[in-house]
Amino acid sequence: MQRTTSVATRRAYVRLAKLDIVDYYFGVLVVWTLLPTALRLDGGVLATTGLFLLGEVFVIAAMVALDDLTGFRDGSDIANYAPDDPNRRRYRKPLVAGTLTEAQVLRFAWITGLIGALLWIAAIATAPHAPLWTVAVIGVTYFFAVQYSWGVKLSYRGFQEFFLAALGWALVLAPYGLATGSIDGNVVVQALVFGLGPLLFGVYSNTNDVKGDREVGRLTVAALATPRGNMLFILALTAVEAVLIVGGPLLGTVWWFPIALLPTLLLRVRQVRVAFGKGDILRARLLGIRVHRVTVVALVVVNLL
């Protein structure tokens, strides 16, 4: 019985850390393919990138654990993961499911946050390059990650959408800067496109969770705007991504960059139709996750070729 309980608790911690949502972690893969060929197998670069990736896993684990704790305490997660909603799986929220206690979640967040900080410090210390702008990006990213739903509660103050994208941008720009000491237009465009991926499934989650978020005062665009205003906001974000892709060659990408990312453009149209044409927001969210992964594959192919 004790062993069964221990296994169940470990599984609950894995779910708390959202380790199955790997979409931000793909940024390191994009970075590795962006590197000059001579650096891709460089020992120092690989060690630094590995430390950064491990740190990223722990920092994000701390971020989402604190987000779950805040969502449980204010009741938004309980409302959004109601037992009568078959599309939201309560077991993904250990506090709502009752598989972990608040004390366990808070302790997990503190430990993973500390480990993540130490790993990022180690990445900076061992990096071939550590320009001030890169160190600043890492420091700011760490600070606001742990403040996402805790402390200043960025996600409750109207900054959630910006942070979801900015986190993706930072997780490409920072490790690339540690490896090379510089950035160019191609790197910036790919970082921006990568960061918009998690945002363009996050806004659909917010659309679904609008009732619970309004009740607890979580100031997302979906909660603040009318349904039409929220739809226009999502369409605008989709258009920004399309402009970045189509205009990429003008900013430093290869000329065939828009062709390589044509699947992304087409799938975004489908995502919008599913959400606002058919009214299936959660299906559109799931499609958004898949679109992001298709985009990552396209970026990797572009960089390797």
Automatic annotation (TrEMBL):
Tell me the GO BP annotations in alphabetical order. Answer: menaquinone biosynthetic process; vitamin K biosynthetic process
Q: Which GO terms describe its cellular component?
A: membrane
- Where would one find the signal peptide in this protein? none
| The entry's keywords | Membrane, Transferase, Transmembrane, Transmembrane helix
Q: How does it sit in the membrane?
A: Multi-pass membrane protein
User: Which Pfam families does the protein's record reference?
Assistant: UbiA (PF01040)
Family annotation (CDD domains): PT_UbiA (cd13956)
Provenance organism:
Umezawaea endophytica
Q: Fetch the InterPro entries from UniProt.
A: UbiA_prenyltransferase (IPR000537), UBIAD1 (IPR026046)
Recorded GO molecular functions are:
prenyltransferase activity
* Transmembrane regions listed in the UniProt entry: 21-39, 45-66, 108-126, 132-150, 162-179, 185-204, 243-267
Q: Where in the cell is it found?
A: Membrane
Please state what the protein is called.
Answer: UbiA family prenyltransferase
